[in-house]
Amino acid sequence: MYDLFVLGQLMDQDMTGYQLRKALKAVVGTEQTMSYGVLYPLLERLATAGSLQLTTEQTAGRTKKWAAITETGRRSFHRLVLTPVVINKQAQLMFQIKCSCLHLLKTAEKVTILQDFHAFTQGQLGQLREIQAYFKDRPRMQPNDVVDELQINQLQQLRAQAQADWITTRLTSLTEGE
């Protein structure tokens, strides 16, 4: 997942580890940030695989490690971005990373990713509605617990619906010729 993010970011320009980490935070939020202890070994692994080239620059007493994507890395990016998302606890994050790379893809590829994301989101909404129905029919639960659970469920449904609406808007703009 982070391989895709790093390669996608480097498709636009060379970046330092600091810039990559900051970009990840902007795309996925502060909850999913990557430590430098994870990032730099990832960069080294991608460099060893030939997907990127690392250079070191000394400026103002600091060492900066720059990463640049290679042709092998470009091919790896396209393979990874077009690989269907496995539906697990990381699926949401993976779709967000893919959406941050949409500008690098052909229209048909964008549509496919957004349709998959939409199906995933509709699945989330369905599960949340089932949970809502479950809590509405639990007479043995404490009434205050039911109220709290239903309020949290409402928040989750609003988030998922906002996501579904965003995806629909993107799909509409693509099919109408952006």
Helices, by number, come to 7
Give the proportion of residues in helices: 55-70%
Instruction: Give me the side-by-side strand order of the main sheet.
Output: 1-3-2
Run of helices and strands: HEHHEEHHHH
Distance between the termini: 28 Å
Q: Give me the Rg, rounded.
A: 20 Å
Overall mean pLDDT: 93
Coarse morphology: globular
Number of strands: 3
| Main pleated-sheet profile | 3 strands, antiparallel
Ranges where pLDDT stays below 50 over 5 or more residues in a row are none
Structural class: mainly alpha
**What percentage of the residues does DSSP assign to strands (E)?**
5-15%
Give a topology summary.
Blueprint: H1 2-10, E1 15-16, H2 17-28, H3 36-48, E2 52-59, E3 62-69, H4 71-82, H5 91-99, H6 107-136, H7 143-175
Antiparallel strand pairs: 1-3, 2-3
Helix pairs in contact: 1-4, 5-6, 6-7
Summed up:
The protein is mainly α and 178 residues long.
Structure overview:
By secondary structure, the chain is mainly α. The chain has seven helices and three strands. The protein has a three-stranded antiparallel β-sheet. The chain is globular and about 65 Å long. The mean pLDDT is 93.
Keywords, please?
178 residues; mainly alpha; 3-stranded antiparallel β-sheet; 3 strands; 66% helix
